Amino acid sequence: MRLFQKVWIVITCILALLLQTTSFFKEKLNSVIYERELYTNYLSIIKDTKQFHYDPELKFRAKPATNSYSQKLLLDANRDVITPGKENATIVMLVRNWELDQALQSMRSLEDRFNKKYRYPWTFLNDVPFDEEFIEATTLMASGTTEYGLIPSEDWDRPSWINETEFEQSIKEMTENKVLYGDSKSYRNMCRFNSGFFFKQKLLQKYEWYFRVEPSVEYYCDFNYDPFEVMRLNKKKYGFIISIHEYEETIPTLYDTVMDFIEENPQYLHPNNSMDFITDMDSLSNMHIRLDLSNDYNLCHYWSNFEIGNMDFFRSEPYQKFFEYLDKKGGFYYERWGDAPVHTLGVTLLMDKSEIHYFEDIGYFHAPFGNCPSSNALRLTKRCVCDADAESTIDIEEHSCLPRWWKVGGKTFLKDKGVF
Ligand SMILES: Nc1nc2c(ncn2[C@@H]2O[C@H](COP(=O)(O)OP(=O)(O)OP(=O)(O)O)[C@@H](O)[C@H]2O)c(=O)[nH]1
Ligand SMILES: [Mg+2]
């Protein structure tokens, strides 16, 4: 190759390189200019907004007939700030290994909506040992620490005083009658465990407060506060979201057994109990279902798949005696007593009515029902993703006992106590 050819190739290469570098810098410059423009635009929008005195508090200010939970908006100015929760509390999930995906789904939802800012510890309970896969995935999903407890057989399995023939007969009859979970032996263990043993587990001894979570549930809204702290500050001991009617065929003798207990132990009946909530039979505007009931119990119960509560109540003498009495009657096995009506009857009769709290503002779904805050202001400020008018939103549907709770417990919210 001649010299001038070589020089020509070198010059061409340099020119190509220069051209490429220039267009690279030009692109860079353009994008900087574009970003600058966006920023200037953004500033001018903010400035305009200020000129119009935009004030979300004014826009959403409480209306005379509001049922909003709080006078102040629960806007979260420090959405990403972590201030670890200071309450003596844990989030509890009773769960099976094969429910890992569903457990992770619930965890992700609760972490995003609440716990990632507080990092409360999670406690997982199981009647068989958790496997490695479950432990690894849930540990990584949790923002707080995690602990895994194996439930002792005496807290889970059918006790020795249960008559096997009578038990098998009940299973057979309930299966024939297509009673929900009537054919399941393990479901009965689970209900008995949740009624009288979860708060006795070794891992839970160090805690006062618990937040019960089930697999496959969803939390529709940001919490924007620590519910454990709110419960403590307001002297609450039991918090619920959904209240519905129980299937009567699962608890034919539960109410009468509870009444026998109260008759024999009148000292345990709280003077300010909420008996009216479970015996009120008035027809309310939302009640179109006919309840052919065999006793005074209207079947209303707090749906226990969501609970935020104080375990000291369940550990107290009145509840302990109450549970032991029920347990000895065997209805967890001869019938199919659920932990929801058992907790409800205990809370209703043994707890001060003022210590029960309805969490109106926590959006929640456990198939097939949910709660979506009815206040538009709440839904917006708490970034809810739910439809307050959906069929699954149970609060004023006919199956819901909430209007009865409002009637008995009063339709008052924390704002009335000046907490927020
Ligand atoms: N470890 C363990 N957990 C159980 C068992 N049965 C149920 N659970 C858990 O107990 C809770 C309640 O059980 P679910 O099956 O959700 O009962 P449910 O809420 O009445 O009914 P669905 O949610 O409609 O199925 C859930 O957290 C389950 O994961 C069991 O045999 N072993
Ligand atoms: Mg469930």
From TrEMBL:
Localization (cell): Membrane
Membrane topology according to the record: Single-pass type II membrane protein
Leader sequence residues: 1-23
Name of the protein: Mannosyltransferase
Active-site feature positions: 307 (nucleophile)
Group of enzyme by EC: transferase
GO terms under biological process: cell wall mannoprotein biosynthetic process; protein N-linked glycosylation; protein O-linked glycosylation
Annotated GO CC locations: Golgi apparatus; membrane
Transmembrane segments: none
Lineage: Eukaryota, Fungi, Dikarya, Ascomycota, Saccharomycotina
Family in the record: Belongs to the glycosyltransferase 15 family.
Entry superkingdom: Eukaryota
Hydrolase among keywords: no
Biological source species: Wickerhamomyces ciferrii (strain ATCC 14091 / BCRC 22168 / CBS 111 / JCM 3599 / NBRC 0793 / NRRL Y-1031 F-60-10)
Documented EC number(s): 2.4.1.131
Keyword field contains Transport: no
Keywords, comma-separated and alphabetical: Glycosyltransferase, Signal, Signal-anchor, Transferase, Transmembrane
PANTHER family: ALPHA-1,2 MANNOSYLTRANSFERASE KTR1 (PTHR31121), MANNOSYLTRANSFERASE KTR2-RELATED (PTHR31121:SF10)
